[in-house]
Amino acid sequence: MNIILIGPPGAGKGTQAKRLVAERGMVQLSTGDMLREAKDSGTEMGQRVAEVMSKGALVTDEIVIGLIAEKLDSLGDAGAIFDGFPRTLAQADALDALLQKRGTPIAHVIEVRVNDEALVARISGRFSCASCGEVYHDVTRPTRQPGICDVCGSTEFTRRADDNEESLRARLMSYYKQTSPLLGYYHAKGQLSVVDGMGEMDIVAQQISAVLDH
Ligand code: AMP
Question: Catalytic residue among 36, 39, 122, 126, which?
Fold first, then answer.
């Protein structure tokens, strides 16, 4: 089963996607993660991507569609969680076409809905384990032992370069201008479900499971 998680930056899409990977053996396809890898690769494309991302703007459709097409080729039979993709109507069309070719359409599009005011606080305290990617928060979800990852024991952590208030405002603007029209599109196709992303992580996960098991 293929699903899309859609919501503004900081809504918790990545966290929920990781749970679905652990609990259901699905595969997380995060274009944000793919682009951060490209950025770190030091290639010319990586440098261009880094510049766009640091401004909180969207990378071109051509680049992200290319990344997703490549990943889908090596996906096998596991269900995919599209996290942060599609973000434009052109990307949504391209995804439909790619999945139609594979005979595995989107089963559910889940909007993780949150209040904008909560996002600044969520994003500005966010950090993750450099080794396993587990996501933490300075205030709401610190590591159990200071400086040690709960999951893998690593002592290295990273903070995203675009997790600051200025970039967040631009990322929110991109979301409302370019991505939120997708909600109407998927609603019209009868694929959209909404979950309340303001609750505890476990409660949000339960709501998502209810949609998938419906
Ligand atoms: P994310 O990790 O999903 O918050 O994405 C981080 C940044 O990567 C975004 O602010 C964009 O600059 C870029 N990005 C991620 N996914 C896409 C996409 N589907 N289309 C365009 N740009 C993207």
Answer: 126
Contact 119, 10 (CB under 8 A): yes
Q: Is 160 one of the catalytic residues?
A: yes
The pLDDT of residue 209 is above 90:
yes
Q: How far apart are CA 137 and CA 38, in angstroms?
A: 25
Mark whether 171 is an active-site residue.
yes
Of all protein residues, the one whose alpha carbon is nearest to atom 15 of ligand 1 is 32
Q: What pLDDT is recorded for position 26? A: 95
pLDDT of 89 higher than 90: yes
Cβ(9) – ligand 1 distance below 6 Å: yes
* Angle at CA of residue 71, ends 99 and 20, nearest 5°: 80
Active site residue: 101, 171, 177, 189, which one? 171
Task: State the first-to-last Cα distance of the chain, in angstroms, to the nearest integer.
Answer: 13
As a whole number of angstroms, the distance between CA 197 and CA 204 comes to 6
Whether the bond into 181 is cis, omega within 30 of 0: no
